[in-house]
Design brief:
Helix 1 crosses helix 10. The chain has 322 residues and is α/β, with parallel strands linked by helices. It is 36% helix and 23% strand. The protein has a domain of 169 residues: Spore Coat Polysaccharide Biosynthesis Protein SpsA, Chain A (Alpha-Beta Complex), CATH 3.90.550. Strand 1, helix 1 and strand 2 form a beta-alpha-beta unit.
Length: 322
Amino acid sequence: MNDTPTWGAVATVKAPARDILNFAAHHLDLGAHRIHVYLDAPNEQAEAALRAHPKCRVILCDDAYWQRRRRKGRPDAHQPRQSLNATHCLNKRPQVDWLAHIDVDEFLWPATPLPAQLAALPADTLSARARPIEALAPDPAAPPPEGQHWFKSCARLQARRREETNAIYPTFGPHLNGGFVSHVAGKVFVRCGGDKTSLRIHNAFVDMVMDDAPAELNDTRLCHLHAPSWDKWQAAYAYRLAHGSYRSGLKPAPLADGVGLNMHALFSMLEDEGGEAALRRFFDEVCTATPDLRAKLDAHGHLHRLSLDLDRKRARHFPDHA
């Protein structure tokens, strides 16, 4: 490997062209050597812009693509499509030393240059994890400065995480893992070039065995725009409840004396009891950057204010789509 390793990202996406190009532009601005985008649905505008950029690679995942890939064709669920596409990229032509498998609403945020972080890892490191911070919706009564986003983090250790979650979120904390409505696991970079290496949503595998002790990229955050506003959260809510990150089969948050409700059960209960108004109360306590929530997060070291500056980055790398 070079003294200065190259890195890139792979994502399977179904999103508006603006969001796809924001994702690519942000990571190109960080110095990504390759951005691999697997389009889960046709998007002519995004496809044309990505194909025109020398550091982007794009594949349209239509029926013909899936018939070439597997006998059964296109998987029904998006999670296996993501994993299969990421593994396809990893094992074919990633054109980088390290590849991150992330989503279109996730943005890497390194405090120090990523190549240096990756170069510092031991030579036998297969994968390295970036931990997430989750976007908060702006409070209309107390918005952040122009161009800024509020994010929240949570404790790494489970006992501390449970104690802090209960303190920060008094109503819904027992059913939340770190106060997040999305994943707390983060996403991984995987070293390219190994035999029988594959990727899933949150982990790397070798010969079907999970790398259960990835290195920690302590100087890199994964900024997750999972619920950046009430309207965007509501637009994705029904799909997530049925098929995505709130689906019924996922594990509930761990408690000291058992488990709470999983997100599917919690949201279903809220809807049964109070409809949209009950969901709004949840969103206001857990997902909105009110002064009260910001103060609690700040007191525990879990409040972050960042400027992603996505419009500027998109204009720089895709000027025809500014």
